[in-house]
Amino acid sequence: MPDQRVEATAASARPAATPAPEAKPAGANLLFLREEEIRAAQDLLFFAYRDFTGAADVILEELGMGRAHHRALHFIGRNPRIPVSDLLAILRITKQSLARVLTTLVERGYVTQAQGRDDRRQRLLSLTPAGEALERRLFARQRERLSAAYRDAGGAAVEGFRRVMRGIMDEAARSYMDRAEAAQDGAPAPSHAPAPRNGPQRG
Amino acid sequence: MPDQRVEATAASARPAATPAPEAKPAGANLLFLREEEIRAAQDLLFFAYRDFTGAADVILEELGMGRAHHRALHFIGRNPRIPVSDLLAILRITKQSLARVLTTLVERGYVTQAQGRDDRRQRLLSLTPAGEALERRLFARQRERLSAAYRDAGGAAVEGFRRVMRGIMDEAARSYMDRAEAAQDGAPAPSHAPAPRNGPQRG
DNA sequence: TTAATTAAGTCAACGAAGCTGACGTATACC
DNA sequence: GGTATACGTCAGCTTCGTTGACTTAATTAA
């Protein structure tokens, strides 16, 4: 098996990726460091997200489902009785895309749809016990990675992580997170609102 | 225009998502908080990554390219003269998938392929000046988000962010990041190795 | 009470970006 | 001289996003 031993590949002399270190005006170095810091952040986001999402793939594949199913399951689990439109606004996909995954989730008994009480046009989505069980299985895999990272990094780092991640997401997502957190602290039945948006909305 | 005013939707009495607060054995509450912390991390990763990647979409769309093109451009830009196989191992996609985006990047003059000197089978990839210019445009959009987040969160938070993100990615990605950082500090021509893997490798 | 708006579903078709399997070619290495 | 490696390519499939058009039921406003 070619075990991808890329070690020491391409160790040939390569023109350094860094600009020539000669004749830097004052401040340029700082600016450069800042740019490198941001580029490193791009790397961090790519790798961390790739491996975070990949963690649950084994289970998904054995069930013939994809990541889209997992995302729906996750957000329905976190927001019982969420209206379809709110879920759409969280995921930022079209209802046709959501319909595809939702159909299979309902057919296979992972998600139930209940008619809204005050607005009977709504179909409020919740996990069935089977859905909760599946979500927990998927969660367990990602939890391994995340809690190991949290444990190794320590509490202060986790708080920093939280702050930076919040800063990266848009205002709508931040206020969603705020409401989710408030709900966590015992507030009764908040809206799952993803907060006002602006983008397209076609379909 | 229906401005997605989801505010206060579904504020009907909903069975709390949280387990009934009565009769908690000692420690259960802590355990619960820890689980909620990890679930919140899932949310953070989803929203932050969604908006981070979305930031460059406007430019990509106007050029008729996708995120796959951006990823290739990014990692080629960060690793001039990278062999195809190393890029594949970083992106973790098949060469057929990479070929599709690479073909258009080369055709449109954003990327050049040079024959390897010590191993002439290799096609070492680099950005052309046009490719660098495009990458900078794309970078600028993401930079806005990232540097605002860094600025608002502060240096200590950024370090925590970095530590947690490193912890989430797998060992191979961590050692890639280490090597990239070392290269940054003036070491001459390191390998772009994504470090040994294990997964499939078919195709 | 009628008309407009909204929530949700559905059919059809398309595009981006993954995937597998099977080969071909040039180069390296033993 | 034979095997393994780096890269490219043809063909076809899957997931999951997209647009556009249209229906039904329920709510809301005129």
The CATH architecture assignment of the domain at 53-153 in chain A turns out to be Orthogonal Bundle
Radius of gyration of chain A: 22 Å
Q: What string, H for helix and E for strand, traces the elements of chain A in order? A: HHHEHHEEHHH
- Helix-strand category of chain A: mainly alpha
Mean pLDDT of chain A: 84
- Tell me the name of the CATH homologous superfamily of the domain at 53-153 in chain A: Winged helix-like DNA-binding domain superfamily/Winged helix DNA-binding domain
Helix content of chain A: 55-70%
CATH class call of the domain at 53-153 in chain A: Mainly Alpha
Sequence stretches where pLDDT stays below 50 over 5 or more residues of chain A: 1-22, 197-203
Q: How many strand units of chain A?
A: 3
Question: What's the overall geometry of chain A?
Answer: globular
The largest inter-chain interface, given as chain pair and residues per side, is:
A-B, 101 and 100 residues
Which quaternary structure do these chains form? homodimer
Distance between the termini of chain A: 48 Å
